[in-house]
Design a protein that fits this description.
Layout: H1 8-23, H2 41-51, H3 58-65, H4 72-80, H5 87-93, E1 98-100, E2 108-111, E3 118-120, H6 121-134, E4 138-141, E5 147-152, H7 157-166, E6 183-184, H8 199-210, E7 224-227, E8 241-248, E9 251-258, E10 269-275, H9 280-294, H10 305-325, E11 330-331, E12 350-353, E13 359-364, E14 370-372, H11 373-386, E15 390-393, E16 399-405, H12 409-418, E17 432-434, H13 448-460, E18 471-474, E19 488-497, E20 500-509, E21 521-528, H14 532-546
Parallel strand pairs: 6-7, 7-8, 17-18, 18-19
Antiparallel strand pairs: 1-2, 2-5, 3-15, 4-5, 4-14, 8-9, 9-10, 10-11, 12-13, 13-16, 15-16, 19-20, 20-21
The chain binds iron/sulfur cluster.
Length: 552
C-alpha cells in the first residue's frame, strides 16, 4: 500500500483511466461530437431540424443551451433570492413543476403529479400543510385529475417542490414540453364494470416517464390516458395517447388511439391497433420517441402529435413506431372488440357499490374544483376513518372516497356534509367544469371559476333540468376546461360595451365525449358575463321544450 491508500495495481489502473479522460476531454458533453457520447434525444431531434433548414423556436434554443433538467440549481438560486423568472427562464422552471403566473398573480403555481389521480390521506394532509405554510390556503383539482397549489411567493417555491418530493409527489415535467399527469379510470380496482384494474400500468408508466431522461425531449406537451372501462368517464379521446381496455378474441388488450387535442377540434384517432397490458409501456415509449424525432420544433402551434399524424398519415407514423419496436403491432378489427358498458354521465358523483361486496365509493362534489385547507384535511380524515385512506381525483374536478363499508356510509356522508361538501348535485352543477381563469392565469379573458359558480346559481333558481348536462368554462383557446366537448361550452372573450371591454364568452353547444363524442359549434359569440345566465337559460328552455326523446 502507498500513502494514498491505493495499492500499486489500483494506482496504475487510475493513471490509465485519467489518461483516457484527458484524451477525450471536450468530447464528453451530451452531443459533444465525434468520438464523444452519442447526442441525447433532444439534441438529436434539434440537429435533425437544423439539418433540414428549420429555425428552432426560442423555447428550443433555451433547451439547446442547457438541458432544462440540468438547470435546477440556477432556478433554485433565483427563487431563493425572491426573484421570479423572466419568460424563457419560467419555461425552463416548468420542467420542475413551478410556473410563474404573473401578471395575473405575482406568484408561482405548482402543478403536482398524481398518477391516475389516486393519492393517500397522508399525502393530502401533507399537501394541505404545504399550502398552509407556502401557498394560498387551498388546492385546485384540475381537469387532469391533479392538484395545483397557487399564490406561492418566489422564496417558497423550492420548499414546495422539496416538501412534495418528501411526500412521494414529484412534479417534474408537469409544465412546458413534457408528458403531463397520466389520467386513468378513478375507480380502478373497485369498479364492478371495469375490464381491468389500470393502476399497475399507470404506476409503471408514471415511473418510466420520471426516470427516462430522453422523454423530457418533447417538442410540445403530451397527454396520456388509460381507461379500464369503469363507470366514470376519463375523456381518454382528448389525449395524445389513449389506451382503452377491450376484450379481443385473444384476450384483454388496450385499444390504441392517437392524436387527441380537442382544443384543436380533434379527437384521438383509431389506429386499429391493440396492445397487451404488459407491452403498453414499451409501446408508449416508442410512440413518444417517434414524436420526439418527428415533431415540429419550428412552430409551437404545429408542435403537437396531431400535426405529425396529419403529415405522415397514421400508417406512416405507426410504421415508424414498429421500426423502433422491431416488430409489428397487433391489429384487430373494431367489430371483434368488446367494450365495457359506457360510463354514466355524472357517474363521478354519488354513492356506488364497489365490486368488493359490502364496500362503496362516494363521488364528492367539489365546487369548480377548489378545496380549502379544512376541506383538504377533512377529506383526508374521512378517507382514513371510514375508508382505506385513499382519495381518487377525477378529470371532472372532483374526488372520490373509496372502500367505505355499508355500515359506515351514513357517517361518511355526514362527515362530507360537515365540510360544506356534498355527494349530490343538480344536473347543472354535476358537470360544471371551469379552468383557472383570470384570477390566476394570464391567458384568460374572463374569471371562469366565479362565472361558473354564478351561472350555476342563476340557472338552478330558474330551471329544473331533467337530464345531466355538462357546462365547461375555459378562459382562452388553450381550452384547459375543454369547451368543445361540453353540451354547453363557454370560451372566454372580451366583449365591447360602449367604449369599454368587459368579460364574456363565446357560447358553443352540442359537444360531447364518450358515447356522445362530438365537437361543439359556436352559436353565439361574445356574450357578456352578466348576460350569460339569461342566454343559457333560454337555450336550456328551448332544448327541454323542443328536443326529441333522448336528444342531448
Ligand atoms: Fe389559462 Fe387558458 Fe388554461 Fe384557462 S384555458 S387555465 S385561461 S391557459
Amino acid at each position: 500500500m502507498t500513502d494514498t491508500g491505493f495499492s500499486g495495481e489500483q494506482q496504475e489502473y487510475l493513471k490509465g483511466f485519467m489518461a483516457g479522460v484527458e484524451a477525450r476531454r471536450g468530447t464528453l458533453l451530451p452531443g459533444g461530437g465525434e468520438g464523444g457520447a452519442p447526442p441525447d434525444a433532444l439534441r438529436a431531434a434539434q440537429d435533425a431540424t437544423i439539418a433540414r433548414g428549420g429555425k428552432l423556436v426560442p423555447q428550443e434554443d433555451a433547451k439547446r443551451e442547457k438541458h432544462p433538467l440540468d438547470r435546477w440549481e440556477e432556478m433554485a438560486a433565483r427563487a431563493a433570492s425572491g426573484a421570479f423568472p423572466k419568460p424563457i427562464d419560467d419555461f425552463i422552471g416548468r420542467y420542475h413543476g413551478l410556473f410563474f403566473v404573473g401578471p395575473a398573480q405575482d406568484a408561482f403555481m405548482c402543478r403536482l403529479r398524481i398518477p391516475g389521480g389516486i393519492l393517500s390521506a397522508h399525502q393530502l394532509d401533507g399537501i394541505a400543510e404545504i399550502a398552509r405554510d407556502c401557498a394560498g390556503p387551498y388546492a385546485d383539482v384540475t381537469t387532469r385529475a391533479n392538484l395545483q397549489l397557487r399564490e406561492i411567493p418566489a422564496a417558497r417555491g423550492i420548499e414546495v417542490v422539496a416538501r412534495l418530493a418528501e411526500l412521494g409527489i414529484i412534479p417534474k415535467g408537469t409544465g412546458a414540453d413534457n408528458i403531463r399527469n397520466i389520467t386513468a379510470s378513478p375507480t380502478a380496482g373497485i369498479d364492478p364494470q371495469e375490464l381491468v384494474d389500470t393502476r399497475p400500468l399507470v404506476r409503471a408508466l408514471h415511473h418510466h416517464i420520471l426516470n427516462t431522461r430522453d422523454l423530457f425531449a418533447l417538442p410540445r406537451k403530451f397527454n396520456i390516458s388509460v381507461c379500464g372501462g369503469g363507470a366514470v368517464e376519463v375523456l381518454e379521446e382528448t389525449n395524445d395517447i389513449s389506451l382503452r381496455a377491450v376484450e379481443t378474441p385473444s384476450g384483454l388488450r388496450y385499444r390504441l388511439t392517437l392524436g387527441g387535442i380537442t382544443g384543436h377540434r380533434d379527437f384521438a384517432r383509431p389506429t386499429g391497433i391493440v396492445v397487451k397490458p404488459e407491452e403498453a409501456v414499451r409501446v408508449c415509449d416508442a410512440i413518444l420517441r417517434v414524436f420526439i424525432a418527428e415533431g415540429d420544433r419550428t412552430d409551437r402551434k404545429k408542435a403537437r402529435l396531431k400535426y405529425v399524424l396529419d403529415r405522415l398519415g397514421m400508417e406512416g407514423f405507426v410504421g415508424l413506431v414498429e421500426q423502433r419496436l422491431g416488430a409489428a403491432l397487433e391489429r384487430v378489427a373494431e367489430a371483434d372488440l368488446r367494450h365495457a358498458p359506457p360510463p354514466a354521465k355524472h357517474g363521478h358523483l354519488g354513492i356506488h357499490a364497489q365490486k368488493q361486496a359490502g364496500l362503496n365509493y362516494i363521488g364528492v362534489v367539489t365546487p369548480v374544483g377548489r378545496l380549502t385547507l379544512p376541506q383538504l384535511h377533512g377529506i383526508a380524515d374521512a378517507a382514513r376513518r371510514f375508508g382505506s385512506g385513499t382519495i381518487r381525483l377525477t378529470v371532472w374536478q372532483n374526488l372520490i372516497l373509496s372502500d367505505i363499508p355499508d355500515a359506515a356510509l351514513s357517517a361518511a356522508c355526514d362527515a362530507i356534509a360537515a365540510l360544506a361538501l356534498g355527494w349530490q348535485a343538480s344536473n347543472i352543477r354535476g358537470g360544471l367544469v371551469a379552468c383557472t381563469g383570470n384570477a390566476g392565469c394570464k391567458f384568460a379573458a374572463s374569471n371562469t371559476k366565479r362565472h361558473a359558480a354564478e351561472l350555476a346559481a342563476f340557472l338552478e333558481a330558474r330551471i329544473a333540468v331533467d337530464a345531466p348536462i355538462n357546462i365547461h368554462l375555459t378562459g382562452c383557446h388553450h381550452s384547459c376546461a375543454q369547451h368543445y366537448i361540453a353540451d354547453i361550452g363557454l370560451l372566454g372573450a372580451k366583449v365591447e360595451r360602449g367604449e369599454d371591454l368587459v368579460e364574456g364568452y363565446d357560447l358553443h353547444v352540442g359537444g360531447g365525449s364518450g358515447p356522445e363524442q362530438k365537437i361543439g359549434r359556436m352559436i353565439l359569440p361574445k356574450v357578456a358575463a352578466d348576460a350569460l345566465g339569461p342566454a343559457v337559460l333560454a337555450l336550456l328552455g328551448a332544448w327541454m321544450r323542443d328536443r326529441a326523446p333522448g336528444e342531448t
